[in-house]
Amino acid sequence: MAKKDFKNLSAQAVDKFFNTTPDTQQEPPAPNTPSTPHAPNTLVTPSTQHTPNTLVTPSTPHAPKRVQPRPRINIAFDEEALTYLQLISRIDNMSITKYLNELIRKDLKDRIQDINKAKEIFK
Predict the structure, then answer these.
(1) By CB neighbour count within 10 A (0-12 exposed, 13-18 middle, 19+ buried), where does 9 fall?
(2) 103 in any annotated domain
(3) Whole-model pTM?
(4) Which residue, 25, 38, 52, 76, is most buried by CB atoms nearer than 10 A?
(5) What DSSP character marks residue 24?
């Protein structure tokens, strides 16, 4: 079966599809909605209430897919250390996470011999 071409559907047909009342009972438009019909070839979707629990998803079929999140840990800092991290990350114009990742990379380069020895011992 061939795919149906929905590109040329009129807005009226789309509105009729999403209309929950029978054709004989037309409801007046809501106070905040325009009374003019939508332009042809536009996507008409039912509206949702904007509440904190509403998930907003992109309306395009080619929306970017979610990327797997990086591994995360929960770290507790002393107040002095946290204040330092917040200040130094602002000075360097980067996030605290990026700043800590840079520190770890630098430490890894400096201690590569120790790391390799530890890998051999802890096999």
Answers:
(1) middle
(2) yes
(3) 0.43
(4) 38
(5) T
CA 27 to chain centre: 35
pLDDT in tens, 14-25: 667 667 555 545
Residue type, 82: L
Q: Which residues contact 98 (CB under 8 A, 6 or more apart)?
A: 89
Q: Domain range holding 115?
A: 79-121
Q: Which two tokens stand for residue 86?
A: 């917040």
- Tell me, yes or no, whether 35 lies in a domain: no
Q: Are 115 and 122 in contact (CB under 8 A)?
A: no
In one letter, which amino acid is 20?
A: T
Record the tokens describing residue 122, joined without a space. Answer: 């802890």
Whether residue 27 lies inside any domain: the answer is no
In this predicted model, what pLDDT tens digit does every residue of 29-72 receive, in sequence order? 555 555 555 555 555 555 544 444 444 555 566 767 777 788 98
Q: For 87-103, how does the pLDDT look when each residue is reduced to its tens digit (9 = 90+)? A: 999 999 999 999 999 99
The CA–CA distances, whole Å, from 119 to 15, 99, 102, 122 equal 64, 26, 22, 5
Phi–psi pair at 81, nearest 5 degrees: -65, -40
